[in-house]
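Appendix B. Chain record.
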Amino acid sequence: MRPVCCLNRTKKIYANLTDFILSAIPLGFLKEVYSNEKANVDFLILLLVLCSGCSGSVADSIGKDVEDTIAHSQSANDKYVQMVKNGYPSTHPSVSYEQAFTAFFSSPQWKHFKAEDGREVVEFTGDCTYQNTPVKARIQFVVHEQQGTFETAYLAFNEVPQNKLILTALIEKAFSSAEKPAGSGREHCITDLLQ
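Structure tokens predicted for this chain:
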């Protein structure tokens, strides 16, 4: 399964990461490194190790977290985001997506964007636990404005795409958890999705 919209941010993230690293180094230290040949070589080796230690996926993840936070604040009153947040699956008509996801995920964020193919997409991100591992879930909904409907289209855990079965099970778990009475031991864990 592919995300509705893929953006190549790696080059921009690496540039920002390099600027950040260089801005964090005191100017006096840089002058000393420049004037001392051995220190210069040691510094270059250290810088290469630091930069190579940041994999593309880590840099992409950092960039996506920042992008999600900014987009969340800009999309708070977006009509497409509100449509999905206020919607509900036919199996749980008394609980909205916003209620279920806020109860199940920590750090819930919503945003809207127009996909490259012209579709309107609402994207949700939130933290949960999958197979005893903390993950960031990214769920995308494709909005069909004229019909007044939307459908789930994509799920990834830590940017690793998941299949439709896991997506369906995750949504069911979130809604089932939201329907439990307060204090009944809701879990933000989806280890038992398919059991």
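Further analysis of this model is presented in Appendix C.
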